[in-house]
Write a structure and sequence with these properties.
Length: about 375
């Protein structure tokens, strides 16, 4: 069968790659054409059959509502190109992976053009813009959800869905980084044997530019304290980014960039400061004490305050429905608050123990491994 996948972010690239493995394993004649990134492309190259990568998600990633408005014309051109490509290729199914701003447009087009539409990793309508549920019902033949709290929600809303666990559990547990010794990790990246504070600034250029100045100020402040002078601060660079994307001005070596090994950095860190997103849930599954920090434009933040219906922005906190770790958002995202929070994570044994207990509960609620393969099997079953 012919599968057309659309992923628009680093997390979608990760989940799309695991889904592709499942599709190739269960459909020997799978022909996959996709929008994604390096992880999806690597799976395609391992298997070879299919049409392969159409567009890299890095070409169109934008941050925030205001930024989307500014780049609206460019985004519309990408939508039209995707629509034309689907129409010309004529897949058996269009599989949309998260990325709602773009994918709702594609869902509407694909449905009206007569293509079957699956949506993998539901748009977060439970957080905001609940009116989009009408579009899910109208355009999507089957929704594949990945969080346990979504089960009751979508049942109440009358949306047809399948739940087979969360694919991030697979991605974390199968990672070679979690089975590598500290010595091997340090040697592979040319690092000194010093305790680590992980810094994750996001994958989009706008996020990085926003987060990095405060990250650097925090690192410099901690480095100046005798008890933290021997620490190293490792920026876990997103797969789509290079060292040049990060502004390390004023750094004399205590802040370094590690590329393509987010799980390794998190696994060997005493604590992590994380831009809200998939990485926060990854840290919970890996077991790294964390604080989530996030800042966007004033306009985007204002709109978010009006439309968001959730108490937390981090997935682990949402899964638990309580704050397992602190979230420093907008005006709370300051150097002083970050320094105090990192010190609490490192120095307060009780805080660390409570967080580990909460992480264990998150993992239990998400279920076991095998979600990606199970979803692929369910998709093929729906098509047949």
């Amino acid at each position: 069968m012919k599968y057309y996948l659309v992923a628009g972010e680093a997390s979608g690239d990760l989940h799309g790659s695991n889904l592709m493995r499942g599709l190739y394993a269960r459909d020997p004649e799978a022909d996959i054409r996709f929008w994604g990134g390096g992880l999806m492309d690597a799976v395609y190259r391992e298997n070879q059959p299919g049409s392969g990568l159409v567009r890299d998600y890095r070409e169109g990633a934008v941050l925030g509502i205001w930024e989307v408005i500014v780049q609206a014309r460019k985004l519309l051109r990408r939508v039209r190109f995707c629509e034309e490509d689907i129409a010309a290729w004529k897949p058996d199914v269009v599989i949309l992976i998260d990325y709602p701003g773009f994918n709702f447009r594609i869902a509407g087009f694909a449905h009206k053009a007569g293509f079957k539409v699956f949506w993998y990793i539901a748009p977060k309508v439970w957080a905001s813009r609940e009116g989009r549920i009408r579009k899910l019902k109208a355009y999507v033949d089957k929704l594949f959800i990945v969080f346990p709290f979504e089960i009751d929600y979508f049942k109440r809303k009358g949306v047809d869905f399948i739940y087979r666990g969360n694919p991030l559990v697979d991605a974390v547990d199968r990672s070679e980084a979690l089975h590598e010794s500290r010595e091997e990790f340090l040697r592979r990246h040319g690092l000194e044997d010093k305790p680590v504070i992980a810094l994750l600034a996001g994958s989009r250029s706008g996020e990085i530019k926003t987060m990095m100045p405060t990250f650097m100020q925090m690192a410099a402040r901690l480095h100046g304290m005798p008890e933290y002078a021997g620490y190293q601060f490792l920026i876990a660079a997103a797969p789509s980014r290079t060292r040049e994307d990060y502004d390390l001005a004023g750094n004399d070596g205590f802040v370094q960039v590690v590329s393509g090994d987010t799980y390794g950095v998190l696994h060997h860190a005493r604590a992590a400061v994380i831009n809200s997103g998939t990485a926060s849930l990854e840290a919970a599954l890996i077991g790294t004490p964390q604080v989530v920090a996030y800042r966007t434009s004033a306009l985007t933040a204002l709109i978010a305050r009006i439309i968001l219906k959730i108490k937390y922005v981090s997935l682990a906190n949402l899964i638990l429905d309580r704050g397992a770790f602190h979230e420093l958002l907008q005006e709370d995202f300051t150097t002083d608050r970050l320094v105090a929070e990192v010190r609490r994570l490192v120095e307060d044994g009780g805080c660390r123990s409570r967080m580990m207990a909460d992480y264990a509960e998150v993992r239990e609620l998400l279920g076991g491994t095998g979600a990606s393969e199970s979803v692929a099997e369910a998709m093929i079953g729906e098509l047949r």
